[in-house]
Amino acid sequence: MDGWMAQLSAPARRALEGAGIRTLRDLSTRTEVELLALHGFGPSSLPILREELTMAGLQFSKLPKKTMRDLPKKPTNTDDYLAQLPVAQRKVLQTLRKQILAAAPGCTEHFGYGLPGFKYNDHPMLYLGAAKNHVALYGSVPVGFKERLKDFTVSKGTIQFTPEKPLPAALVKDIVKMKMAEIELRWPKKDQKIRK
Q1: Over 90: is that where the pLDDT of 101 sits?
Q2: pLDDT digits over 50-62, tens only?
Q3: 39 and 107 part of one domain
Q4: Whole-number Å distance between alpha carbons of 135 and 92
Q5: Strand, coil or helix: what is 120?
Q6: Is residue 180 domain-shared with residue 129, that is, in the same domain?
Q7: What is the distance of C-alpha 58 from the center of its chain?
Q8: How many domains does the chain have?
Q9: Mean of pLDDT over the chain
Q10: What distances in angstroms separate CA 80 from CA 54, 69, 123, one per listed residue?
Q11: What is the separation of C-alpha 23 from the centre of its chain, rounded to a whole number of angstroms?
């Protein structure tokens, strides 16, 4: 036990030890408010600790220690996902979102794989997302678009673009229509009528 801790009351020592504070360096990562919130720690201990920290060339933290509760939460829906993006990325993806919804009447939005997505006839159709240096439309790229996508970075399941050079609206509409046709061909809608 460090000498400084021996100066404290038993409840204050137990409170610090219970919070994982065993050294003056540990102590310097906490604010006075955090310490006072510990069960068994009273205000009379603060002057003793302040003096010990000063003699060691340290001081109480001015900012509360980050906890898991303080970390940004992962988005769970499209609006939250878009809200956390830089303005330029948010605007271009909001536009893309509107274009997809307009081109695919009856499609529904969903959130999967940590990304905003769209389903058509209950089957995943497309996703959109953002990375550090680009935004993207995710989903298998339909055949026949190679020439129209030559100015963009394309892989089997991604079309990357930037807010400064977004996908043209007509191209988005045609991709969406092709994806809808693929889904209708692969998973034809079953007759909803009840046969008697």
Answers
A1: yes
A2: 999 999 999 998 8
A3: no
A4: 8
A5: strand
A6: yes
A7: 35
A8: 2
A9: 88
A10: 44, 17, 23
A11: 35
pLDDT of 71: 53
Shared-domain flag, residues 85 and 182: yes
How many other C-beta atoms can be found within 10 angstroms of the C-beta atom of residue 168? 13
Q: Does 24 share its domain with 115?
A: no
Domain region containing 50: 3-55
Kindly give, in sequence order, each residue whose CB lies less than 8 Å from that of residue 51, ignoring residues fewer than 6 positions away: none
Let me know whether 41 and 84 are in one domain: no
Q: Which residue has the tokens 């000063």?
A: 54
- Give the type of residue at 36: L
CATH of the domain at 125: 3.90.1150.200
Give tens-digit pLDDT for 83-95: 999 999 999 999 9
Extract long-range pairs of 110-118: CB within 8 Å, 24+ residues apart: 111/75, 111/76, 111/77, 111/78, 111/81, 114/74, 114/75, 114/81, 115/81, 116/78, 116/81, 116/82
Pick left, alpha or beta for residue 139 (phi over 0 → left; psi -120 to 50 → alpha; otherwise beta): left
Q: Does 79 score more than 70 pLDDT? A: yes
pLDDT in tens, 160-189: 999 999 999 999 999 999 999 999 999 987
* pLDDT surpassing 80 at residue 123: yes
CATH number (domain holding residue 34): 1.10.150
Q: What percent of the chain has pLDDT over 90?
A: 58
Residue 15 and residue 85 in one domain: no
